[in-house]
Amino acid sequence: MDISYLFEPYDNLVSKADQAFERMAGEFEECIKCEPHCADCCHAVFGLFLIEAVFLKQDFDQLGKEERAAALHRGSEADTELEKLERTLKEFENDPQMSAYSMARARIRCPLLNDDNECILYPYRPITCRVYGIPTMIQGAPRVCGKSGFKKEQSYPTFNLDGIHRELYQLSTELFKKTENKEAEKAALLLSVSKVIKTPVEELIDENSGGNDTKG
Q1: What is the pTM for the complete model shown?
Q2: What is d(CA 24, CA 34) in angstroms, rounded to the nearest whole number?
Q3: Where are the domains of the chain?
Q4: Which of 21, 45, 140, 165 is the most exposed place for a label (fewest CB within 10 A)?
Q5: pLDDT, tens digit, for every residue of 155-177?
C-alpha cells in the first residue's frame, strides 16, 4: 500500500510543532526546563492517531534487534499498567472529573524510553512529545509541564494541540480510504505506543481495533 502521499502533510504538522517550540524557547527561555535525560513527559499517558502510529512503527522497525526487544519488553510492562489504569477509569466512568484526574496523575513509562532516560526514536517522536514543555491547548483547556517555569497568573502564547489532533484525525481518515475497512470512525481511536510497536503496520491499518483510547 502506497501512503507516501501522506508523508508531506504529516511532516508539515511535525514542523508546526517544532517551530512553535522553538519560538517559545526563544521568547521564554527561562520558563522551559526541557533538558537531556529529563523524562517527565515520557511517563505521561497519551495515544497516537493511526497516521502517527504507522510512521512510528516504520521507524521502530529500522532499529537493531536488541533495541527492539528491550522496547517490546518495556511495552509489556506498560500494557500491564495501562490495564490497571483502565480498571480505575471504569470505576469513575460516571465521574468525568475524577476520571480526568486519574488520567493526569497516571505515570506509565513509554516503551521507547531506555534505561539511560533517552528516547530511542527521538528524531521521530510523536507531536505530543515535541510540544510537551510549552503551554498547549488540549480538550479546550490550557496545559503545561509541571516542571516548567510558566506561571498560572500570567498569560502566554498557547500551542493549539486540539487543532493538530483534528488534522491528524483527517490524515488517519485518508489512510482508511486506502483500505476496504468501512469503519471510518476508527480513525478517531488512539493507540498506545506499546500496541503500536508490537503490531505489524498492515494490521494497524487494516484492523486498528482494540487500541487503548488513552489521551495525555
Answers
A1: 0.85
A2: 12
A3: 4-74+109-206
A4: 140
A5: 999 999 999 999 999 999 988 87
